[in-house]
Design goal:
Blueprint (H helix, E strand, L loop, with lengths): L1 H11 L25 H4 L3 E4 L1 H4 L5 H5 L2 H7 L3 E4 L33 H13 L3 E6 L3 E3 L4 H4 L22 E3 L5 H18 L3 E4 L7 H14 L4 E4 L4 H5 L4 E2 L2 H12 L4 H14 L7 E2 L9 H18 L4 E5 L25 H16 L2 H4 L1 E11 L3 E6 L3 E8 L5 E7 L2 H6 L4 E4 L6 E3 L3 E6 L3 E8 L1
Parallel strand pairs: 1-2, 1-10, 2-3, 3-6, 6-7, 7-8, 9-10
Antiparallel strand pairs: 4-5, 11-12, 11-14, 12-13, 13-18, 14-17, 15-16, 15-18
Length: about 450
């Protein structure tokens, strides 16, 4: 059943992506890209919107909550855009942080440059890294360069400043046909690394910027800081070939939503991960998520009954997982990009916080989750919808058994192939949720797998 399913997935993969061409994915597996730095490969990414992260909505307010991030165990802090925001066409009372009026300054509403530098330094002092959100495709409608360098911006046939996406009415697209604009944006990327020692970038709508710009600019960034981490907000392996380490796995996110709310089966998610791995360039580090600032809160989407199963599933996959600020707290409201709407930290869900702390600790303890191979396992069952897969490196091994549906699975049989049976003969694995559930690696049976259940078994080789 597994091979035909992969074939079918290869025909439809990426046909409903949030970003990208929507065409079936080609085979890029013959390419090998430079791996992400070790701190990113083993890390967990935390998205932080300064305006919403504290009641003050400032850099200093964010600094006051860094104890929480350290306690949570995340490694990489992604700061959403921190730049001055345009006035022309502004959305809401405060405007979108993705409408940038000055690429080399900080928004005074968030604090001073000294405050931002102090925040970066404090993140570093705690052993974490920081990546900055950059917006290279478009600027605010009233960027000062529109008066001094109008040819740096896109124009329509009537000569009016314009944009590719009409709904983005508060921005104007940059003109990458202009070599001076390219040079300025490349130097801007280098500026924040040189002046503030940031550790990488999350690049907004990266697929709307020419690939040849990325090849040049990202090579310069890597020369400046060899252990830099580069995340593209898009879903296209060609961006990885241009120098990025990671792109978004939008396809998996939408499939998980369909599994939760439609008739799609759990095994489709297990197979999709293998399909992407088989077609993407070697060393790719996909960024995987249950929510981000563009999507509804995961607790709203997957429900209180399902969130543990889905979060556990996501954190056992290869790639770098994302937590959006408040996700770990059970926040149901998604902060507006255009107003000040602080996260409701006073309404904590302590059980959810402990779930994410435990998942992060699991990834740090067992390197098979960050360095190991991913191998789906054959599942047969009398009724229901289940999937299983193996994660293994030289020293640790894990088997993940999951039911992402709201109905039980009856009489489940999991069968590894002959290679893994031989390679892991004699290895015993213990359930992370029940230390009395110890199993020798091989054929496994479950009389019943409850709805919304993801079990993780780990062991040493």
């Amino acid at each position: 059943m597994f091979i035909p399913l992969l074939f079918m997935l290869s025909l439809v993969l990426y046909c409903e992506r949030r970003h990208g061409t929507g065409k079936p994915l080609q085979d890029f597996s013959r390419y090998r890209i430079e791996p992400a730095p070790e701190w990113a490969r083993r890390g967990v990414l935390y998205e932080l919107y300064v305006r919403a992260f504290s009641p003050e909505g400032t850099f200093r307010g964010a600094m006051a909550r860094l104890d929480h991030l350290e306690h949570l165990g995340v490694d990489v802090v992604w700061l959403m855009p921190i730049y001055p925001i345009g006035q022309a066409g502004r959305k809401g009372s405060l405007g979108s942080p993705y409408s940038v009026r000055d690429y080399r300054a900080v928004n005074p509403e968030l604090g001073s440059e000294a405050d931002f530098r102090a925040l970066v330094n404090e993140i570093h002092r705690r052993g974490m890294k920081v990546i900055l959100d950059i917006v290279p495709n478009h600027s605010a409608n009233d960027h000062p360069f529109m008066a001094t360098h109008p040819d740096w911006f896109m124009r329509d046939e009537q000569g009016n400043f314009t944009r590719e996406v009409p709904e983005w009415s508060d921005v104007t697209d940059l003109n990458y046909d202009n070599p001076e604009l390219r040079a300025y944006m490349k130097e801007t990327l280098l500026y924040w690394v040189r002046e503030f020692d940031i550790d990488g970038y999350r690049c907004d709508v990266a697929g709307m910027v020419p690939l040849d710009f990325w090849r040049d600019a990202l090579a310069a960034l890597k020369a400046e800081k060899p252990d830099i981490y580069l995340l593209a907000e898009w879903e296209d392996p060609q961006l990885l070939l241009a120098g990025f380490h990671s792109d978004y796995d939008w396809t998996l996110y939408h499939l998980l939503k369909d599994i939760r709310h439609k008739k799609n089966r759990t095994a489709e998610a297990v197979s999709l991960v293998a399909e992407k791995d088989s077609l993407y360039p070697r060393n790719a580090l996909p960024m995987r998520f249950l929510e981000n600032h563009d999507e509804e809160r995961s607790l709203s989407v997957f429900g209180a009954a399902g969130i543990q199963a889905y979060a556990t599933f996501l954190f056992t996959l290869p790639g770098i997982p994302l937590i959006y600020a408040g996700q770990e707290w059970g926040e149901l409201h998604r902060p507006s990009l255009f107003e000040r709407e602080p996260i409701h930290w006073e309404q904590a869900d302590s059980s959810l916080l402990e779930l994410y702390r435990g998942l992060i600790r699991m990834r740090k303890t067992y390197r098979c989750f960050t360095e190991g191979r991913y191998q789906p396992l054959q599942c047969t069952m009398l009724s229901g919808s289940a999937g299983a897969f193996l994660r293994a490196d030289q020293h640790t091994v894990a088997v993940v058994v999951t039911n992402l549906k709201n109905r039980p699975v009856e009489h489940l049989l999991i069968t590894p192939d002959a290679h893994w049976k031989k390679a892991l003969q004699g290895v015993t694995l213990t359930s992370l949720s029940d230390s009395t559930d110890v199993r020798a690696f091989g054929n496994w049976t479950f009389d019943r797998l409850d709805p919304f259940t993801t079990l993780v078994y780990v062991g040493r080789r």
